[in-house]
Amino acid sequence: MKITKQTPREKVIAVAAECRKCGHCCSFGGCFVLEDETERLAQKLNISRNEFKEKYLDENRLFNKIVHKTKVVKKEEELPFGNCVFLSANDKTCSLHEVKPLHCRIGTCNEHGNDTIEWFFLNHVVDPDDPVSVREWAVRLKTKATIPGGNPEDLVEDAEKLKKILDYSITGFEKEYDDLKDLDEWKNEFDEAVNTALENAMDECMNDKRHNKKNGRKNKKN
Ligand code: SF4
Ligand code: SF4
User: Fold this and answer.
1) Tell me: the pLDDT tens digits for 81-132?
2) How far apart are alpha carbons 180 and 178 in whole angstroms?
3) pLDDT tens digits for 87-100?
4) d(Cα 83, Cα 28) in Å, to the nearest integer?
5) Which of 128, 163, 205, 212 is most buried, judging by how many CB atoms fall within 10 Å of its CB?
6) Of the ligands numbered here, which is closest to the C-alpha atom of 30?
7) pTM for the full model?
8) Is residue 11 within 8 Å of residue 1, measured between CB atoms?
9) What atom in ligand 2 is closest to the CA of residue 104?
10) How far is the CA of 104 from the centre of ligand 1 (A)?
């Protein structure tokens, strides 16, 4: 069976189901945890979602999306990898096994391993509506082939739009520029209002001074 971006989730899980649970892959780093999985995992540990995130997850940016990854416990500090925090060091079992994240359920060391991870990225991380995400994915594909349905021209079917995304004519930051423009306009309005208020205050102050001077003269005459 060839996995494509469109392969249903249950079929991808089935392809990876023959895992022997040796724990080998869990000794080389943590797994991705989707936002909507955090509640279920926190419940399993009888803690709040926030506590779960703080205690067990690290935040990463991947294809312009913030994604969480389980923390790792390093055997030696200088190593770039280590055991997933949920892997038991004694018997190599996963303490979240019954509820483990989708990323672990579709991870496999059989011949589909590469494709299932591509499927995960394409369906849960890469955002075809975000030009930055598409661009970062396209850069990655320069050194790594993906599964059918996962090439930039599959993600953005409008060829002209894709060309503009890839040559930065569409940056993906247009909204931020607009927000900045709004902020600039707001700042100008604010400066104008402050200046008017200052001028009014100065006028009032000058009027008061003139009035007091006049009254002072009157009082002297009297
Ligand atoms: S996917 Fe493979 S390496 Fe990972 S735990 Fe299962 S059998 Fe072991
Ligand atoms: S959550 Fe469990 S299955 Fe997933 S990487 Fe950690 S130990 Fe392995």
Assistant:
1) 899 999 998 888 999 999 999 999 999 999 999 999 999 999 999 999 999 9
2) 5
3) 998 888 999 999 99
4) 6
5) 128
6) 2
7) 0.79
8) yes
9) 4
10) 10
